[in-house]
Amino acid sequence: MSSQIKGHKDLDVWKKTIDLVEKVYKVTAQFPKDEVYGLTSQMRRAAVSVPSNIAEGAARNSKKEFKQFLHVALGSLAELETQVIIAARLGYLSAVDELTGECLTIKRMINGLIASLKVA
Q1: Burial class (CB in 10 A: 0-12, 13-18, 19+), 71
Q2: What percent helix, strand, coil does the chain show, rounded to 5?
Q3: What is the pLDDT of residue 23?
Q4: CA–CA separation, 73 vs 86, rounded Å?
Q5: pTM of the model
Q6: N or C, where is the chain less crowded by C-beta within 10 Å?
Q7: What is the CATH number of domain 8-116?
Q8: Which residues contact 23 (CB under 8 A, 6 or more apart)?
């Protein structure tokens, strides 16, 4: 790991995404049982993908690789946000504003981290 890249557990954005995963697991536990292999599974995988990609990127040897993984994390975050909106429209979720707000905050944090990783 580059000396200027922090370990993933030291990154505030990683900590925030871990909190988001926990919330997603809790809200999806209340979804109808017939969604266990559908929206529940999709949302959980997308949520877990965000901190996982941040961690994998931080463990890489270059800022360029780290940025690539942060972009993948942004993609998973957008996927999750879309699924939150779908779940709300289906009547499975009432905390849509809270979760979409957290997604937006995390998106800003990841974009800020990407901007800070100036690649030579």
Answers
A1: middle
A2: 75, 0, 25
A3: 95
A4: 20
A5: 0.90
A6: C
A7: 1.20.1440.60
A8: 95, 98, 99, 102
For 23-73, what is each residue's pLDDT tens digit? Answer: 999 999 999 999 988 999 999 999 999 999 999 999 988 899 999 999 999
What are the residue ranges spanned by the domains of the chain? 8-116
- Whether 40 and 28 have beta carbons less than 8 Å apart is answered as yes
- Tokens for 66? 């780290």
pLDDT one-digit tens code per residue, 64-81: 999 999 999 999 999 999
Task: List the one residue out of 11, 10, 16, 9 whose CA is nearest residue 106.
Answer: 16
* Cα end-to-end distance, the chain, whole Å: 16
Give the DSSP per-residue string, 46-101: HHHHHHHHHHHHHTSSSHHHHHHHHHHHHHHHHHHHHHHHHHHHTTS-S-HHHHHH
User: Residue type at 107?
Assistant: K
Closest to 102 (Cα-Cα) out of 54, 61, 60, 50: 50
> Cβ distance 77 to 50 under 8 Å?
yes
